[in-house]
Design brief:
Chain A is α+β, with helices and mostly antiparallel strands. Chain A has eight helices and nine strands. Chain B is extended. The chains are: A alpha+beta, B mainly alpha. The interface between A and B is large, with 66 and 54 residues.
């Protein structure tokens, strides 16, 4: 028996045992897709390339998602992956946010969820986001984006996911994460599947769960302290807003949770 | 075509393409100096549904450098570094 187990252990070679001839890889909790857009991907600015040379945007199945199709034509699917090893192969061969052109976005979403409000998985959700002045954060944004992606693919944003008291593990709250570059600032966002509505009761529990995601983002991912005030010129606090509230105009859109 | 594939040697499939998925994290023993994923993240883990802490994941950064086969040429999707010689 002991020999068998030893034999088995010797047959398992991770990248740490053998970087070129490993025979096992670490599966992610969910498969992910990276999307990208910038002025260069829109309309005619895109260089003519054979259609087979890059993955196609998947067909949109739901009416809501179809409404987002016009916009989705301008965003490019870069790659899908489902293991830790593939993630790093991608990370080590792609452009970091600090070197992206202005007005570019990376969207890292769970496979099958398009990075639009209209997707079924997003329409009842919301987002945590922070805006950071570009000049002060050029040297921070790459690390912040990496840590945001690692918390997403490692599924550590949502503490309830591994609640040992829960009879059945709950579904992950997170649908995707985004980094945006603008002339004056960067923005990082975490999209959630659902959002509190202020109804009380079970909604209060959801609000607590959403807030714990925000605190994890602020402290463990971005590296700020709990009480640190972040807003200032071109900068916001770490704040949450439901997509439905974001769509409202003017003062009505003001309902936000801040950590 | 067949003729073409005979003249151009096919690259060996990468380890990434042939490696199998780990089904039981407990069956993996890492070399000295490599830290395992935090156990408390995977108390109720179902097969292949694992969560990983950042310190564990960061250990792969310096090792997994090979460009994935499925990554398209970045210029084909308009994904190119901005000119860094001018401050923006």
């Amino acid at each position: 028996q002991e020999v068998d187990m030893q034999q088995q252990a010797e047959n398992i070679r991770t990248v740490f045992n053998d970087p070129t001839n490993f025979n096992v890889k670490h599966p992610l909790y969910s498969p992910w897709t990276l999307w990208f857009d910038s002025p260069a991907t829109k309309g005619r600015n895109l260089p003519q390339t054979p259609m087979s040379s890059f993955p196609q945007t998947p067909l949109l199945q739901t009416p809501g998602a179809a409404a987002a199709q016009g916009w989705m034509e301008d965003i490019k699917r870069v790659i899908s992956f489902d293991s830790v090893e593939e993630f790093w192969g991608l990370y080590n061969n792609i452009v970091p946010p600090s070197q992206l052109p202005q007005k570019a976005n990376y969207y890292l979403f769970k496979e099958g969820i398009i990075p639009a409000w209209e997707d079924e998985a997003n329409k009842n959700g919301g987002k945590w986001s922070i805006q950071l002045p570009k000049d002060k954060n050029r040297n921070n944004v790459d690390r912040m984006w990496l840590y945001t992606m690692l918390a997403a693919i490692g599924e550590t944003f949502d503490p309830l996911l591994s609640n040992p008291d829960a009879e059945t593990p709950s579904q992950s709250l997170i649908t995707g994460v985004i980094v945006s570059t603008r002339p004056q600032f960067y923005r990082l966002s975490i999209w959630t599947r659902i959002a509190p509505t202020g109804a009380g009761g079970d909604d209060d529990k959801l609000r607590e769960r959403i807030e714990s995601v925000g605190r994890h983002f602020k402290m463990n991912v971005l590296g700020y302290s709990d009480s640190q005030k972040l807003s200032g010129p071109l900068a916001t606090e770490v704040e949450f807003q439901s997509h439905k509230d974001s769509e409202k105009k003017g003062k009505q859109s003001g309902r936000k949770i801040v950590v | 075509s067949l003729a073409k594939s005979q003249t151009i040697p096919q690259p060996l499939p990468s380890a990434l393409a042939t490696a199998r998925i780990i089904e039981d994290l407990g069956s993996v023993s890492y070399p000295d100096g490599i830290q395992s994923p935090k156990v408390e993240l995977n108390v109720n883990a179902k097969q292949g549904k694992f969560r990983y802490d950042r310190d564990f994941l960061l250990q792969f950064m310096a090792i997994c450098k090979e460009k994935p086969d499925s990554l398209p040429p970045l210029d084909a999707i308009g994904l190119e570094p901005a000119d860094q010689s001018f401050p923006m």
